[in-house]
Structures are given as structure tokens and as C-alpha cells.
Amino acid sequence: MSDSRKKTPAKPKKAVQKKAKTVKKKPAAKASKSPAETEEENLPFYRKHVAIIEGIGYILLAILMFSVPQLMIRHPNSLAGQILVATPYPDGHPSKPFFDKTVILMTKHTRRMAHGFIVNRPLESMSARALYKKLDIPAPGRSASLWITPAYAEDTEGTPKEGRSYLSETMESMSFSVYWGGPVDEDLGHLLFLDKEYSKSKITRVPDTNVSFTDKMKVMNNVLAAYEEDDVTPYKITFGHTQWGAGQLDKELKDGRWQVVPYEQNIVFSDNPKGLWNELQKRLAKSTETGQENDKENTGE
Prior knowledge:
Helices cover 32% and strands 18% of the residues. It is an alpha+beta fold. The chain has two domains: 40-73; 83-290, VC0467-like (3-Layer(aba) Sandwich). It starts with 34 loop residues before the first helix and ends with a helix.
């Protein structure tokens, strides 16, 4: 006897998803610290970094040791970068032969000393050959052409080989105006010039001006090069310089030996050095008169 009832298909069994059991790892046991490590952790910051702090301290000490002496010798009223104009010296004054009617560019002024160059005492002009001989520097050799740009001389090594030294036609015909810079080291030459025009190294810059100077006189080759290229900028060759000891210039200023005027390029590189002192005296006198008139106006006189 057949079973006429329809059999319903069996439903597929759902796959039983077993949840993966997450095994919690137990934290590793911390290694026990030694008493020394525990003590170090508890130290204050400055104790932990004592080496760094000591290093910074040494640096600050070095800076202090360098700067304090500089501050101590710095003059509160430094005249470096200004112009001194001598007042007329009375006859018989011991400084009259040296400083009477002089105009001086001040290059340094501290509590210990003062230094400058007289800029209005021209000496006799010197030929290029004579100047090089006095400065004891070799003339440019054939391998050192003068058709070069400034800042050449200090980069040249060695001297011309024997028999190959020469003077260019320009140098042979040239003469240089030279100046008496002062009574100290009168055989020592200096070149005063506008910043970095004739040299880019071994120079000293005059504070608060556009003037530098050097005693490395091979830089004269750069002056020659400028003449060859018809590109000469102001310069001044001096022999000797002025120098005062501690407090000496201050005393002379107090005694009225000098008047002070601000730096001007046209004073240092004046076209009329012999008449420069008289010109500045007139300017100072006019300035004094103007000041007196202003005082009278202010006081209502």
C-alpha cells in the first residue's frame, strides 16, 4: 500500500558557527627593578641630567668670560667711525708738529686705547715702481695679468719667477698719492678703501662707515687692475697711523684739543686734502653761530 502523502524535503541544516574562543594572554610579569634603578627614577630632573646641565653651564661660562672683558673695555662714548678735527695748537706745543691742523678718521676707541688715520697730510707722490719697492711687494708677473676683477691679489700664491717680473705700461706710467697717516709705524703701509671694493678678506671695517682698511698691501694689485679697467673707486694709501694710550684721547678732548664731526665719505676721500682742515673749521664755526642764534631765539633775547 503506497503512501500517498507527499514528503516535504528536509531543510538543510544550518552550519553551526562555532565562536572561536579568544584566549586572553596573561600580562608578562614585570621584571623586578633593582634598588639602584628605583632610586634613579625617583631622582629630581636636575640630578638625572647633570651632565647636560654641566655642559650648558660651561658654554655660558665661556661666553661670559669672553664678553665681560669686552664690555669692561668698551668706551661709553666711543668715537670710532667719526672724524676728529684738531683745534689750532699754540706755538711751542709738543704735539704741534704731529697734529696741528689734522683731520683724523677714528677706527677704534676703547678704554684701553684709540686708533685712527690722518687723512689730510699728503706726502710726495710716488711712482708705482717706488711704491712697490717701499712696500716690499713683488710687481705682478706675466702669469698674473692685470686684466682681472678686484679681490685678485689675496688669492694669488707665490711670487713671479726670476726674470719674469714686469710692470705693465699702465703701472710704469702711474704715480700714487700717498699720505702720512700718523707718527706710529711710519714705514707701515695701509690701504683705506670703500667696503669690499679692493679686497674681500683680511680687512678691518671702520664701525658705522662704509670704509675698510688693510695692511696686506698685495691688495695694491687690485688697485692696478681697477686702473687698467678704468674702474677706480676711492682709496687712500697711508704710511703710519695715530694711536693713544688709555685715557689719553679723553684728556685731550676734555682739554679742547679736538672737535668731532660725523663721518662723511667726502671728508676721508677729499679731492682737496690740503684745504680740508680749513673747510671743516669754517663748517664748525658756522654750526656754532647757528647754534648760538637758536639759543637766543629759544631764550627770547
